[in-house]
Design brief:
263 residues; 8 helices
Length: 263
């Protein structure tokens, strides 16, 4: 199953620096997104290290495979790569006082034939748009999500909570981190959105679904998402990756051959 990729990164309307980073490698079916945090420029350092190092680590772990990878192979590769990246950022923060305390969220998606393996740490999100319905396929590692899960607050209260950006898990802030990894089946026509909280905090799910459902190019949809976040205030950096699952060539001919009376 072929895929089409598009991405945009924008500083937003308030901040002058950009602590979001994106790396997309269509040849490997790979998309990585990170939202950095820390002192002056340290967030940019952390997110930049995370995307570049993770891509390199995954290339070492996945490319040598001579046969199609099993889900468990990809999961192990993601876990090993995330551990190496976490250690590199943690060590860099200790070695350089200007980077002390830096860390980053991490969201990685590996697109394979009929399958997506996604791993994440923090509150950067992945969504799937399928046949007009938007589904969040990651669950935030955040204080807010824990409060929601415990029934301490309602979704309406969560939307205006002062704890919206407090993550409970991040890359580089401790000497180890656990990446959460899941596999999902992919269907032709699916559209996957990876984003930082600069988008998800500003644009609600209904508006996200509306934009993804428009008859636009993938590049124009990515820009429309950025514009939507900025129109609502653009309080944070905004990173967006869109991945469209395309119909394989010849699918219509095969459909006609199988059901000639219905096609």
């Amino acid at each position: 199953m072929p895929y089409d990729f598009s991405f945009r990164v924008d500083p937003g309307r308030i901040r002058h620096n950009n602590e979001d980073a994106v790396l997309v490698d269509p040849a490997r079916g790979l998309a990585v997104l990170a939202d950095g945090m820390g002192g002056y420029n340290a967030g940019e350092v952390a997110s930049g290290m995370a995307t570049a190092l993770l891509a390199r680590e995954l290339a070492l772990r996945l490319d040598p495979a001579a046969s199609p990878l099993r889900v468990e192979d990809t999961v192990r590769a993601l876990e090993g790569a995330a551990d190496a990246v976490n250690r590199a950022i943690f060590d860099a923060a200790r070695a350089h006082p200007s980077c002390s305390g830096m860390g980053t969220t991490l969201l990685v998606a590996v697109f394979q034939p009929q399958r997506l393996v996604v791993g994440h740490v923090g509150d950067s999100r992945a969504y799937r748009w399928r046949r007009g319905e938007l589904t969040q396929i990651t669950r935030d590692h955040s204080l807010l999500q824990e409060q929601l899960d415990a029934g301490l607050i309602t979704p309406r209260q969560a939307a205006v909570s002062i704890h919206r950006n407090l993550v409970t898990r991040a890359v580089g802030v401790q000497d180890s981190v656990r990446i959460e990894v899941h596999a999902h089946g992919v269907e032709p026509g699916d559209c996957y959105l990876l984003c930082s909280d600069g988008l998800s905090d500003m644009v609600d799910d209904a508006s996200l679904a509306s934009i993804l459902g428009r008859r636009l190019t993938l590049q124009d949809k990515a820009q429309a998402l950025i514009d939507g976040a900025n129109a609502r205030g653009g309080r944070d950096n905004i990173a967006v990756v869109l991945v469209q699952a395309l119909r394989p060539r010849g699918w219509w001919r095969r459909l006609r051959a199988r059901w000639p009376g219905d096609a």
